[in-house]
Amino acid sequence: KMKESLNERQRYISQLGEGGFGTVFSGYRRHDLFPVAIKHIAKDLVINGELHCAPLEMVLMVMTAGDPVRENAVISPLAWTDLDDEVLLIMERPEKCMNLFEYDNGQIDEGLAKEFMRQLVEAAIQIHKAGVFHRDLKLENILIQFSDARYAGTAELMLTSDLELFSGHFNSKPFSFLTGTHCFRPPEFNHRGTYEAGPTTVWQLGMQHCENFLTQTIKRLKVSEDCKKFLKSCLLVNPDQRITQEQMLCHPWFRSSVLPELNNISSANIAKLSLQQH
């Protein structure tokens, strides 16, 4: 009865997505209308060739989130319960947000790209300190939440919880099983057949930065020299020479004077935000 009551305490609205690891619905908690995402997860999951029980996803989210709802850059879990053949996971569902791919089709100015990158690097460091490796950093997995829908400068970034691609308590041992988006795999996987958490995260962050400028050729970028040097240090083919996450935050680019434009968000973005509220 307690298991059923958790499900009954949620009001379903619509399906957000479906994949091999379960189905996600948008909804609200009935007692206070708090927006939630309701995820139904298959009981047994095979991750990297190993069988795991579904609550692993909840454990990884707790490890990564750490603090209560919206105190950090990772979407927070709220509750979960075992429903015999599946696990029901209740997560926060931030409103007034869109993924970075949807935001002006991924095109942003250098100043705003720098602010977003700073937040992403800080989020990645937070996740790694919790012993969790995301493995699929891409524009579609990065949410922008607007505290004021009129100004892009009020945006905050959050990582979505595609935790089937996370690896808990990783160590220095390289990974040999590739997960995540194929086109963002690090070059060392092609050369060595293995990859490690830190250098891979830096590579994927650099790739997303290039995506923001609609090119993967650094020479063609119309950005500052500091920005180009930052990207080159993230995208070195040799992972041993690649910049670290901590070094990224200390890079001269973050100390340069290029500031985000506080222009009004485009009408297309406002329309997308409005649609999410209905």
From TrEMBL:
This entry's Gene Ontology molecular function terms read: ATP binding; protein serine kinase activity; protein serine/threonine kinase activity
Sorted alphabetically, the Gene Ontology cellular component annotations on this record are: cytoplasm
Q: Does the keyword DNA repair apply?
A: no
Keyword Kinase listed? The answer is: yes
Q: Which residues does the annotation say bind ATP?
A: L16, G17, E18, G19, G20, F21, G22, T23, V24, K39, E92
Pfam families cross-referenced by the UniProt entry: Pkinase
Which reactions appear under catalytic activity for this entry? L-threonyl-[protein] + ATP = O-phospho-L-threonyl-[protein] + ADP + H(+); L-seryl-[protein] + ATP = O-phospho-L-seryl-[protein] + ADP + H(+)
Q: Which UniProt keywords apply?
A: ATP-binding, Kinase, Nucleotide-binding, Phosphoprotein, Serine/threonine-protein kinase, Transferase
Q: Which residues form the active site?
A: D136
The Enzyme Commission number assigned here is 2.7.11.1
Q: Name one GO biological process term.
A: regulation of mitotic cell cycle
Q: Where would I find the Protein kinase domain in this sequence? A: 10-254
- Family statement drawn from the similarity comment of this UniProt entry: Belongs to the protein kinase superfamily. CAMK Ser/Thr protein kinase family. PIM subfamily.
Q: What does this protein do?
A: Proto-oncogene with serine/threonine kinase activity involved in cell survival and cell proliferation.
PANTHER family the record matches:
AURORA KINASE-RELATED (PTHR22984:SF11), SERINE/THREONINE-PROTEIN KINASE PIM (PTHR22984)
Protein name as catalogued: Serine/threonine-protein kinase
State the organism named in the record.
Takifugu rubripes (Japanese pufferfish)
